[in-house]
Write a structure and sequence with these properties.
This protein has 6 helices and 11 strands. The strands form 2 sheets. Strands 6-9-8-7-10-11 form a 6-stranded mixed beta sheet, sandwiched between helices. Helix content is about 35%, strand content about 25%. It starts with a strand and ends in a 9-residue tail after the last helix. A hairpin with a 2-residue loop joins β2 and β3. The chain is α/β, with parallel strands linked by helices. It has 2 domains: about 90 residues, Nucleotidyltransferase, domain 5, CATH 3.30.420; about 150 residues, Nucleotidyltransferase, domain 5 (2-Layer Sandwich).
Length: about 260
């Protein structure tokens, strides 16, 4: 069994693979103050609750955008699984050519997204939109060149900023809206959040396509917790909720962690 962890700013998205098949997934609310014991006890308990023997885990792979948790996660894997995890970081094989001015600046989540997208949709120009704490848009050529992209506040982060930085605006449920004109404060916030994200993604994908993929339009892949919120707006060709996890399995393969017994 392979345990893969997508460590974001708000939560840890956990997946269990048997070879390359995702057989279980669960989430843990992540904070920089979580201890290795707290995470280790949660992981072993969650595995058992999902019908997976923790002792069957042979490999752990991690993508983390929370540097202060990396040492904690490494200690957790050593103590609770007797394993040294593969943490996706500069220096590992990715199969990508990074066209960033400083390739080390690219977050591991964006790298894993790109690797997962290439694995599932080879030989295609790609735009990957990831709706996490931050919303990211990344462009990857069919020749596996990571061109770069955009980073914006995620939809929940934008809502929390309105609540925190204004005197009278409340927290609201984030959901699709049918109309652009809200008739209450709550409706106005909801429509503003929803349609601003629709417009933002549509404009960025259009501009990226024109600038980088004029000869062959890209496939647009969505992932992340809010990707399905926009399913009716015809923004994406595919929604793949576990794209980072797929990318981590590909990283394990490229770096020699997988063998005939890793199942």
């Amino acid at each position: 069994m392979i345990l893969v962890l997508d460590v974001g700013n708000s939560q840890i998205y956990c997946g269990v693979f048997q070879q390359e098949e995702l057989i279980s997934q669960f989430r843990y609310a992540s904070t920089g103050q979580s201890t290795s014991d707290e995470i280790g006890v949660f992981l072993r308990s969650a595995l058992r609750e999902n019908g997976v023997d923790p002792e069957a885990v042979q490999i752990v792979a991690i993508s983390s955008v929370v540097p202060e948790l990396n040492y904690t996660l490494r200690s957790c894997c050593q103590k609770y699984f007797s394993l040294e995890p593969m943490i996706l970081r500069p220096g590992l094989k990715t199969g990508l050519k990074i066209a960033y001015k400083d390739p080390k600046e690219v977050g591991s989540d964006r790298i894993a997204d790109a690797m997962g997208a290439i694995k599932l949709f080879p030989d295609r120009n790609l735009v990957v939109v990831d709706f996490g704490t931050a919303t990211t848009v990344c462009a990857i050529t069919k020749d596996r060149v990571f061109l770069g992209g955009n980073i914006m506040p995620g939809i929940r982060l934008a809502m929390e900023a309105l609540e925190a930085k204004t005197a009278k605006l409340p927290s609201v449920e984030i959901k699709p809206t049918r109309t652009a004109v809200g008739k209450t404060t709550t409706e106005s916030i909801q429509s503003g959040l929803y349609w601003s994200n629709v417009g933002m993604v549509r404009e960025l994908v259009s501009r990226i396509s024109a600038e980088s993929f004029a000869d062959e339009p890209p496939l647009v892949i969505a992932t992340g917790g809010f990707a399905n919120l926009f399913h009716r707006e015809d923004l994406f060709d595919h929604v793949v909720s576990d794209l980072i996890l797929v990318g981590l399995i590909e990283a394990l393969r490229l770096n020699g962690y997988l063998d005939a017994e890793a199942g």
